[in-house]
Amino acid sequence: MPVTLRQLRYLQAVVEHGSFSRAAESVFVSQPALSLQIRELENAIGAALFDRESRGVLLTMLGREVHEQALRVLDEALVLETMGKRFDSGPFRVATGIVSTLAPYFLAELLERLQALTTRVELDILEAPSGELVSAVLAARIDAAIVSVPLGLMELTERELFEDRFLVAGRAERLDAFRALGDRPRAEDLAQSDIGPLLALAEGHCLGDQVLGACSMWRLQEVHRGAGSLATLSRLIANGKGLTLLPETAALSERAVSPDLSFHRLVPPEPARRIGLVHRLASHGQPWIELLAEAATSAGEALVGAARKAIGGRS
How many helices (H) and strands (E) does the chain have? Predict the structure, then answer.
């Protein structure tokens, strides 16, 4: 017969009160019912747990060891019994992926906002390209990811957080040559100019694909894809190696490191990526989703707002 939590609770009551009668009263059962459960526990263990004496009941040597183990089991059972309430009210620990072209610029703002919440949300961060993060969410290795949307996957719920527009980035003289193409040069005009080459992130980075999409007609021989991060790409551009499109979220941080980096804002409709929070359908309605989404939206809007104020552009 298996040991039950009821038996362990009755065992603890007997130890605490020193008698079967007082223990029965404390757990609101009759003494015979409690004594029966203790006998069944002793049968399951295979030995007596109490010495019944006229002065009371005392644990046997084995009984003391069983009692110590019972306390550990009851503590763990209490954790399980209260887990649902704690899960609804926090604190929450969420394994969250952030696309690598956003994380270095965005994470500090996000954590600052999460720390200000009355309900604590703690993140275990995974930084990786978008494709890896989406695979990790689908495989339940992480709870959510902050990536470019839409993805269009039926298995995932998406929530758009903010718009991150692209800026033409390069040294001042290259941007002057680009502006000289006309009064309102557009991203696709990069494909018609001789001021390149166009630099983009290496294969596997969705931002690199987005840049090429925005500059849809760029001559393939004039596209250099090899940089593994926006930091590397920005250093190359600042050293006069070409032009690229950088997201607003990265612009001010990269210019602070590379003062020779300049920006030009394109005419509306400006090319942009849309940043969103994605999670599995099974997570729908869990309280941390709203908390994380609101903090991420606020963090993203603060970054792009600062870029638009410093560089110019409509809000």
Answer: 11, 11
